[in-house]
Amino acid sequence: MPFQKVTPEKLSHSVVRQIELLILRGILRPGERLPAERELADKLGVSRPSLREAVSELQDRGLLSAKAGAGIFVADVLGSAFAPALTSLFASHDEAVFDYIAFRRDMEGLAAERAATFASDTDLKVINAVFEKMEAAHPKRNPTDEARLDADFHQAIIEASHNVVMLHMMRSMYDLLREGVFYNRSVMFKLRTTREVLLEQHRAINDALQARDPEAARAAVEAHLSYVERALEDHGKAQKNEEIAKQRFEHEQGRE
Fold this sequence. Notes:
By secondary structure, the chain is mainly α. 73% of the residues lie in helices and 3% in strands. The chain contains eleven helices and two strands, in the order H-H-H-E-E-H-H-H-H-H-H-H-H. The protein has helices at 11-24, 37-44, 48-60, 84-92, 94-118, 121-137, 143-160, 164-172, 174-190, 195-210, 214-255; strands at residues 64-67, 71-74. Helix 5 (94-118) runs antiparallel to helix 11, helix 7 crosses helix 9 and helix 9 (174-190) packs across helix 11. The chain is elongated, with a radius of gyration of 24 Å. The mean pLDDT is 85. Residues 9-77 form the HTH gntR-type domain. This is Pyruvate dehydrogenase complex repressor. Keywords: DNA-binding, Repressor, Transcription, Transcription regulation.
């Protein structure tokens, strides 16, 4: 019979699996530095040689990387889903922009629904903390800070959804998310859209999540992104009307 004696698992293998899970679940982020060797060995309850063996294996597999004189870091296993040139292209062409918003509405609506159901108390505290930073930044009227916090708020919801595929996919799209937020806000400010409306929409999302109401959370996210979509459509119509008016004016000037 092809049975073999069961042998205890090497400690280094247990360490490897634990670090793998922390990376998979997004708890250890790309670029994050691991604790110093002595501290990490104590936390894991293993010897330093066992830890070194585990770290070496994870380095060989491309999950960890060493920086001379700086320590061991989680490797940039995500990168960006899109090249910077394509990200800029998306932000400057209506077809891609509206597809992007529709994609966000679907994915983030689902993420909000899941977060209201599966988020830990700590996850909800993180989301609330980002929203409080948005409130604090609001009176300062710094669009760069507001856009960054806007993106961080939506990203925190995705992380609280506890779906590892969604988490890593959306993290890899973070540059696109950030660029989208900058672009959307700049357009809406041109349309005199009040910043209070955007803040209140995020408040509604946060309130639904803190109340652990999945349906309300999804509806609030979808309503927010539909509002952004309508604002961009209005902007497009306004631009076309301005162009038509300009052409008519130039035509009339040419006839005189």
